[in-house]
Amino acid sequence: EVNSFSSDLKLSKAYLLYWAHQFPYTLCLDNCFSEVDRYGRFECLIGIGRENASKVTKWKAWEGKTSKWLMGGLTYDLKNQVEPQLQNQYQPLVDVGEMALFEPQIVIGLGRHQQEWKILYQDPAFSFNFSDALEEGKGAYQQAQNTTQSPLEFRSLTDRDTYLQQVERLRQHIIDGDCYEVNLAQAYVAE
User: Fold this and answer.
1) What are the respective helix, strand and coil percentages of the chain, to the nearest 5?
2) Is 176 helix (H, G, I), strand (E, B) or coil?
3) What distance in Å separates the CA atoms of residue 170 and residue 49, rounded to the nearest whole number?
4) What are the tens digits of pLDDT across the range 32-65?
């Protein structure tokens, strides 16, 4: 269950992500070797799901069921149901339902301050060899390093004037005492 590849953890993380790219469902939760989160148990978790992975997109379909692992994300549509007083009117760029969760066939983890990756969960039907995955990922990584690609162009979905109006409106809320701190976020798309 435990591999012996620990000579370069950052590089092994990159190799595993390049290996995981071949699967339709991959989720990586990466702490980026940050020391800010003192309570987290893991530096990195990577979950892989094949085409036949169980998927959950509705809260009612999942509620009350247990699963060894579910990985993915919750959407604002679900937040709007759970917390109706915090409604937002944003339309998602990609409609995935209330949640986009999958049951991974394998979960690989690197513990905080650990030097070895561990298989935290593996479906018995999922064939996995850590050394082979690293070698395959290394090959894909090296090939990508030798390929010239045009960089992605990111653009904000909020124009400058609208953003500045939002900042002023939020500043007034702070002055009025409605709140003392605000995190104004904006969506970007890559093309």
Assistant:
1) 30, 25, 45
2) coil
3) 41
4) 888 777 777 888 999 998 877 777 777 777 776 6
The pair of three-digit structure tokens given for residue 153, joined into one six-digit string: 């162009």
Placement of tokens 């247990």 in the chain: 66
Q: How far apart are CA 25 and CA 124, in angstroms?
A: 18
| CA atoms within 13 A of residue 132's CA, in its CB half-sphere | 3
Backbone angles phi, psi at 138, to 5 degrees: -65, -45
Residue 164: pLDDT over 90: yes
Tell me how crowded residue 138 is: count the other CB atoms within 10 A of its CB. Answer: 17
- 94 touches 189 (CB < 8 A): no
Structure token digits, residue 165: 């109006």
Specify the pTM.
0.70
How confident is the model over 138-151, as pLDDT tens digits?
Answer: 999 998 888 877 77
Scored b (16 or more CB within 10 A) or e, 63-73 reads eeeeeebbbbe
Q: Which helix (H) or strand (E) holds 145?
A: helix 130-145
